[in-house]
Design goal:
With about 210 residues, the chain is of the alpha/beta class. It contains five helices and eight strands; from the N terminus they run E-E-E-E-E-H-H-E-H-E-H-H-E. Bound molecules: 2-acetamido-2-deoxy-beta-D-glucopyranose (3 copies). This is Cyclase family protein.
Length: about 210
């Protein structure tokens, strides 16, 4: 059985650190509260460490932070309050805090499983666990695509992506238009067209596609 050759991974723009958790007036969850201020001599709690190194390399995390006003598929209202502290040690729970997440698997920066768009793969159980980690991890080529077109076969041919490149991230007009910062879902986003995908399969060594 053959796995879908392409994985569509909408990778999104690099965030300025100031944009982090800027989504709401109040942090919806303690995990999203930033920093702990010293008040009246009260001890300052240690700040959680975000690890940005792995195996001697630097991780460049270009994922979007989840926000209530992050766009969601065909929603005018964004993602909504997706995270809450369902039980708190401060309030009745004697053993632990329990956070609850409610959001679709296609929220924000995500990877699509073969079963997402092909019913026979879905029925056969091709979920994200079946993706090859060796394909998902490693050097990638960042490619700026023309801003006035979707990614078609002609666009693909014009990019002259060298043979041997296995992973590409396409930076598109979506990033310029800051679509991930618009609460209302915008159907005019730039995407990878069927003939562009076919061209890629027929003419390149690319196994992983990300799109911003
Ligand atoms: C549990 O949640 C409370 C907020 O109600 C928070 O102040 C506390 O730090 C949390 N405890 C742990 C261990 O996460
Ligand atoms: C504490 O728990 C009660 C009962 O579940 C709830 O009604 C109340 O809003 C909670 N208070 C806080 C501060 O979380
Ligand atoms: C890409 O295709 C979508 C859907 O057909 C369309 O709305 C959009 O205008 C196209 N974008 C460009 C840059 O041509």
């Amino acid at each position: 059985m053959e796995v879908a050759p392409l994985l569509l991974l909408p990778l999104l723009l690099l965030l300025p650190p100031a944009a982090v958790a800027a989504g709401g007036e109040s942090a919806a969850h303690p995990g999203y509260a930033h920093g702990t201020e010293e008040a009246c001599g009260v001890a300052v709690l240690p700040a959680p460490e975000r690890r940005e190194e792995f195996d001697g390399g630097r991780i460049v995390d270009i994922s979007h932070y989840y926000r209530a006003d992050m766009p969601a598929w065909e929603s005018a209202e964004g993602s909504g309050e997706f995270l809450r502290l369902a039980r708190s040690m401060r309030n009745g729970s004697d053993i632990a805090n329990f956070s609850e997440l409610r959001l679709t698997a296609h929220s924000g920066t995500h990877v699509d499983a073969p079963g997402h768009v092909f019913e026979h793969y879905y029925d056969a159980g091709f979920d994200v666990d079946t993706l090859d980690l060796a394909v998902l991890n490693g050097p990638a080529l960042l490619v700026d695509v023309p801003r006035d077109k979707n990614i078609t076969a002609d666009v693909m041919a014009s990019l002259h992506i060298p043979k041997g490149v296995r992973r590409v991230l396409f930076r598109t007009l979506n990033t310029d238009r800051k679509l991930m910062w618009k609460k209302e879902f915008d159907t005019s986003y730039v995407g990878f067209m069927k003939d562009g995908a076919q061209w890629l399969v027929d003419n390149t060594d690319i196994k992983l596609v990300g799109r911003s």
